[in-house]
Each structure stands twice: as structure tokens, then as C-alpha cells.
Amino acid sequence: MKEFIKRSEGLWLFTRSPAVMVAAVIAILIFIGAAFAPWIASVNPYDLGSFSLMDGLLPPIWQEGGISQFMLGTDDQGRDMISSILYGARLSLLIGLSAMAIATVLGVGLGLAAGFYGGRFDAIIMRIADIQLALPAILTALLIDGIARGILPPEVQQDLRVVVLTLAIALSLWVNFARTARASTFVEMNKEYVQAAIIMGQGPIRIMFIHILPNILGPLLVIMTVDLASAILLEATLSFLGIGLAADSPSLGTLIRIGMQFMLSGEWWILWIPTLFLVALVVSINTLGDFMRDVFNPGLR
Amino acid sequence: MFYFIYKRLIQSVFVMLAVAFLAFSLFRFVGDPITQMTGVETSVVDQERLREELGLNDPFISQFGRFTVDMLQGDFGYSFRTRQPVAEMIASRIPATLELGVVALLISLVVGIPAGVYTALRPRGVITQTILMTTLIGISIPTFVIGIMLIFLFGVQLGWLPTFGRGETVNIGFWESSFFSIDGWRALILPAVTLGVYQLTLTMRLVRAQMMDVMRSDYIRFATARGVPMRQLYFRHALANTMVPVITIIGLQFGGVIAFSIVTESVFQWPGMGLLFLESIRFVDIPVMGVYLVVIAFFFVVVNLLVDLLYVAIDPRLRV
């Protein structure tokens, strides 16, 4: 085991940085908690019958009046905070991960093609990317969301909120992938293995995805991590602004928005526990992203 | 040099046309303007007549042409929601957002540049490490959470500062300013800090990276060897050469400030353009959304032109 760790540079660096290890543990715990929320959480916050108003506004267990059934207290509806947060994180991560996946596929595909074909195709894609890069992601996402509200018929709006939100976030994040993939593809294009594959008459799709893609994966992984954090933040921000998800299916951002109402009245846990949870999640993912950047770019160390 | 500015001007015109086109497409294709303008009781015949009168059956290009000419004359149409002219609605909100943005940008630069220089010059110091750790957390904390934390601390717990609105404003012509009253400044502090923190971390990191780069360069080593005093070395030789990228970020950050002001304005109920934009999204008020885009793009273009002119002023090589 020790030998193996020493041979892999990334793992070796990992064992040497406690902050990164803590971040990894937090991130993994949250992922597991979110993935298995229906089995871990004591109540289902979407099911109105599973909690009762009688349990409303109970403080966390270490504060006077807290009971062990609700370790982190309850909100005004009597929902267990732990359950709300786990379900909220589940939704946030679901949207974040799908948005990141869509952005990756779209961005890497376009970037690879732009780098491979060059010429006019490349120019068009990169102009679009430039324009979008000038607009901050939050503005793009808000705009796409607004357009969707205008186009979609009102009766499907509520059902499609998650899809719209995911697409809005994905479409505001693809640029990073496209630019990185394109730049790396340009470098790879001049290498002999690609030239050889072209001369052998292999198809462009095969060359792009079987030959070039595996060689440019490193930097893309870094962007995937960083963009996952951005996607989660974007979703939280949009939900907080009341543009994202509705209050009956709360994500972390919605929980924070709801908690704002209790800032003045002393029920601090309804606001601060989801906030702390969101920040912990994003900080650990960002820390992991920074670490991966160091691993893949030895020059920056 | 004139050619350079001329080229940039032409580019800016094209950017503005592209944005106007986007705004026009929004207005024309997202929902039907006629159904927005008329009620349920309007007959189909009347709807068709209105459509013809407004020229919505004309060729696309001539409609876009009319739209652009109207915009150039300051006619931005009417809001679907309030039935007021959009131009007035947005104009009354511009001062609030610009004042907030300028103060936030100033905070970002006044704190960010010295911090960046310091952390570059003392890369191993304890203070540097602390600052870097703080900025990593600062980048990860979403703007709205920073806002909530500031409201909680200074507004609720300590009760020092107001947590919403602009406070007392003074009218200077059409410009409603909060710069001229103590109450206005007090109301400005929390939102401006919230908006400035994220930009501050960006400024700091960029100045630091640039400064470290410059410090490694040959002319700095040579100057050190020549015995140039440290102070002069740092601030005349090194910092001057990091100024060009720093000005670039001011240009870029302006966009970030405007975009994130949407979030900040929502947290603090600051009556600026961002809040108006949010409301217009919620009510699918397409004309306001479109005009907001055009106005923002206009600010972008102007700021970027100014940045280009500043390059010429700062970097003598561009004056050839």
C-alpha cells in the first residue's frame, strides 16, 4: 500500500495535505448523505403527513428545549432540519451534477471539434464563447430562466422547474470547458500520434474521442470540480433569489431564503444550519479543485 | 493610435447591434406581444388589426430596423407589467446601481491592490498565509451569504447600520444620490462591502500573480543587482508593470459588479436596476428584460473603451 501511494504522485500529495483530506471527507459525507437521504432522514420533508406543526420551531439538541428526536431542531412547519437539509442537498447536488455533466458534454464536444476542424467553425464557436464570457454566469442563467418562463406554457412550468434550472446553469458554464478543450486539442493536433491517425484515415469522431480526449482529460477534470462548485452556488443563488425552485421542494438555497424570515426572531438554526452546510460543501469542493489543479499542473507548485 | 481607437469603436458598434438584436428577438419571439398587450375580451379581428398597426406583420429586418431607430431616439417601449415607459423605469434605477457598483469597485481596488502586492512580496509570511486562506473561503462563500452574515452582525446584533433600502437620498437634477447624506452613506456600507468582497479577492489574486511574475523577470534582478532601493524597486519598477493587467480587471470586474449587484440588491432591497431586472424576470416582463440587457451592454462597451484609452495613456509602447 505504502509503495503504491509513493508511486502515485497525486495520492502522495494527498496524504501530505491535511486540509485537502478534511475537504475530501466532508465532501464524501455530504454526497453519501444526499444520495441516501430517503433512507437516512427521519421524515420526508415533501410529504406533509410525515411531520406535525406541533413540533414546530424546536431548537437544536444542545440548546434548552431541544429534544433528541430532532438533533438540529425543526422549522416553523415542524420539519426536522436534518431531513430538510439532506433532501435539500440531494436536490442541489442533483442539479449541480447534471448541470455540470451537460456543460461538460456540450463544452468538451464543441471545444474538441473547434480545435480539430479549426477555421470558420472554430471562429464562430469562439466568438460565441467570448460573448458569453463577458457576461457573468449568473446573468446568463437568469436570462435563460426568464426566457423559459416566457416560452413554456404555464401548466408545465412547475413540473419543469428543475429541468429549466439545470439547463440554465449548464448553458452558463459550458464556455470554460470549450475553451480548455480547444486549447489542449490545438496542442495535441501537432503531435505525431494524431498526425499518424489522420494519415491512417481514421474518422474524425474516432480521433477526437478515442485519441485526443484521453490525453486532455487532466485539465478538464480540474474544471469539472471547480464548475461543480459554481453550479451548486448558482443554483443556491437562483433559488435564494426566488427564481429557482419553489418552497415546496426546497434546495439548500430555498432553505436559506426561508430561513431569512427567522433572522430577527431568534430561531437562528433555521437560517444558519443550511447556510453553514452549503458553505462547507462548496468550500470542500473548491479545496479539492485547487488540489487537483496542483496535481495536474506541477509548474504551479 | 487613432486607427486603434477607430477599430475599437467599430467593434463596439457591432457588439451593441448584436445585443440590440438579442433584445429584439426576446421581445418578438418570447411570448406574443399582442396577447400581452390585450385582454381576454379583445376579439381576434381587433388583435389582427393591432398587429397590422404595430407593424408586427412587416418583414423581420424592417421591424428590427425600426426597433433600433426607436432605441437610438430613447424610445424603449412600455413595460408589460406597469404600463410605464421602460426608459423612465430604468433611468430612475440607474443612479442606485451605479453608486453601489462604484463604491464596491473602489473597495475592491483600494484593499485588493495593496494586499496583492504585500502577499507577493512576502510569500511565506504568516500574514500572507492568513490572507490567502481567507480569500479561498471568501471565494467559496456565495455573495448572498456574505450579505446575510453582514446584515445579521451589523444590522441585527450590533444594530449599527441599516439593512435595507438607500436611506436618505438627495436629488441632483435627475440623479438621486445617496452620497450627500450621512444616512445615505450608512445605508451604502453593507451592500457595497457585500458586493466588493468577491471582487476584492479576484483583484488581490491577480495583482499577486502579476507581481510575482514581474519580480522574477530579468530587469528586476538587474535593478536589484544595480542597487536600486527596495522601495523604488517595488513601487516604481515592479508595480508600474503590473498596472496594465490590473486595468484590464477593472474593466472585467465592472461586469461582475453589475451582475452580482442583482444578488446584492435583492438581499438588501436596494432599489437599483438589478432588483428591477429580477422583478421583470419573475413577471416575464420582456421589454424591461431586453432594455436592461441593452443598458448593461452599453455600460460594458463604454467601460471597455475607456480601459483601452487608459492602456494608451499608461503603456508608452501603444502610442506609436
Automatic annotation (TrEMBL), chain A:
Domain of life per record: Bacteria
Example of a GO biological process term: transmembrane transport
PROSITE patterns in UniProt: ABC_TM1 (PS50928)
InterPro entries for the chain: BP-dependent_transpt_permease, MetI-like, MetI-like_sf, OppC_N
Domain ABC transmembrane type-1: 89-289
Cell membrane in keyword set: yes
SUPFAM superfamilies according to UniProt: MetI-like
Family, as annotated: Belongs to the binding-protein-dependent transport system permease family.
Name of protein: ABC transporter permease
UniProtKB/TrEMBL annotation, chain B:
One Pfam family linked to the record: BPD_transp_1
An example Gene Ontology CC term for this record: plasma membrane
Alphabetically ordered keywords of this record: Cell membrane, Membrane, Transmembrane, Transmembrane helix, Transport
SUPFAM superfamilies referenced in this protein's UniProt entry, alphabetically: MetI-like
One example of a Gene Ontology biological process annotation: transmembrane transport
Domain of life: Bacteria
Recorded topology in the membrane: Multi-pass membrane protein
The ABC transmembrane type-1 domain, residue ranges: 94-311
Subcellular location per the Swiss-Prot or TrEMBL entry: Cell membrane
Residues annotated as transmembrane: 12-30, 100-121, 133-156, 185-207, 238-263, 291-314
InterPro entries registered for this protein in UniProt: BPD_transp_1_N, MetI-like, MetI-like_sf
Family: Belongs to the binding-protein-dependent transport system permease family.
Entry protein name: ABC transporter permease
Species in which this protein is naturally found: Marinomonas ushuaiensis DSM 15871
